[in-house]
Amino acid sequence: MAEDVLSQNEIDALLSALSSGEMDADELKKEETEKKVRVYDFKRALRFSKDQIRGITRIHENYARLLTTFLSTNLRTFSSVSVASVDQIPYEEFIRSIPKRTILNIFSVSPLEGQLLIEVNPNIAYAILDRLLGGKGVSFNKVDNLTEIETKIMSDVFEKSITSLQEAWSSLVDIDPILEDFEVNPQFLQMVSPNETVVVISLNITIGESSGMINICIPHIVLEPIISKLSVHYWMQNQSNNAKPEDSERISSQIKQAHVDVRAVLGESSITIDEFLHLKENDVIHLNQEIDKPLVVYVHQEPKFEAQPGKKKKKLAVQILNEINRGDEHE
């Protein structure tokens, strides 16, 4: 158990009190031997360690970045998503904290058990709807009377956006999220028992001039099979093993298809504008390239190779002699 460290002033005050008789040394010893009691609320059981909460935070910070890209691309307007907080609370407390009328998406996350809930603030939900229908992304709240078309459009966009969460979770487990239900009244939801511990990830989201919150509620039963993977030790242990051979091969094949600008410079020279204007046939321009020195091959404006000129099958060509390492000076 960690002990409190007293400052010099506190030590002096304590010694002064003991010497003056204001405090009794025997009473102090008695207080130290007494057991200290701390109140524990069983209704608010903490089932995740701080280390595991940090792991959940890292995953959803990545999800926030992916969701920002998804919304910006699909809505074609400024979008920003960031993690505001990550807390563990009873399910009942979470339900009481969200509006009585809001947008609720319930997803199954096979092969994990249970379901997770994504609650979208109406301000954001209607800003997305307005933008998809050709508007400027103005927010308006009429959750009580959603039409079938509005419900379909909203559920479709939230169902597509869940692929970002699937990608963010892929470092821990491959999930197959499926939209099971779309609801507007949280009182109709009973995913787990009221006292069940859930992790609530709150995201700040801005779309155009509208802003609001998205809350992701994940019950303990969903995270229980992978809870050991949420620690820093697991992340550090697997950091060096993240690269798969097939991923390296795929990246290499994609790089080989990239088009780059490669040019061999025969030489350079500087002349005045007057000399340029009076150039005529048989004039000779003196280059700064010595005949016994190799040519420089540039790749996207960067000197990359030294080469010698020649021919191959009656075509001009260069033969690479060596590579110019980064940091070498070339004159």
SSE blueprint and pairings:
Elements: H1 8-20, H2 25-33, H3 50-75, E1 79-90, H4 91-97, E2 103-110, E3 115-120, H5 122-132, H6 148-169, E4 176-183, E5 197-207, E6 210-219, H7 220-223, H8 232-238, H9 245-256, E7 262-265, H10 273-277, E8 295-299, E9 302-312, E10 315-323
Antiparallel strand pairs: 1-5, 2-3, 2-4, 3-6, 5-6, 7-8, 8-9, 9-10
Determine the structural class based on helices, strands and strand pairing.
alpha+beta
The Rg value, from CA coordinates, equals 33 Å
- CATH fold field value of the largest domain: Chemotaxis protein chec
Level-1 CATH class name of the largest domain: Alpha Beta
Under the CATH scheme, the architecture of the largest domain is 3-Layer(aba) Sandwich
- The CATH homology group name of the largest domain: CheC-like
Helical stretch tally: 10
Average pLDDT number: 79
In the sheet with the most strands, the strands line up as 1-5-6-3-2-4
Indicate the low-confidence ranges by residue numbers. Answer: none
User: What overall geometry do the principal axes of the alpha carbons give?
Assistant: extended
Separation, N- and C-terminal Cα atoms: 66 Å
